[in-house]
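I hope you will forgive my troubling you with a question about protein structure. I should value your view on which stretches of the chain appear to form regular backbone elements. Here, with my thanks, is the record as I have it:
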Amino acid sequence: MARRSAPPSGPSYVPHPSQRRAVGGIHDEDQSAFSRFIQNEIFAPEKISGNINLVTGLTMFVGGILAVRTWGDLMIPA
């Protein structure tokens, strides 16, 4: 049975750097490279769910390490 899905919304390849400006949207020429990175990679609506997943995983990892370091002696049978 054929799978039905929505057509791709954009190119499935990484565009050439000269074409990224047209694909990525309008940028202010006075922005620094760091602020463009933050805007395009961190706060972009299409990438926010993946970024939330990364932050959640990192928080769980660090929280697990802190919990074991704090209450690890309670996990060993006496």
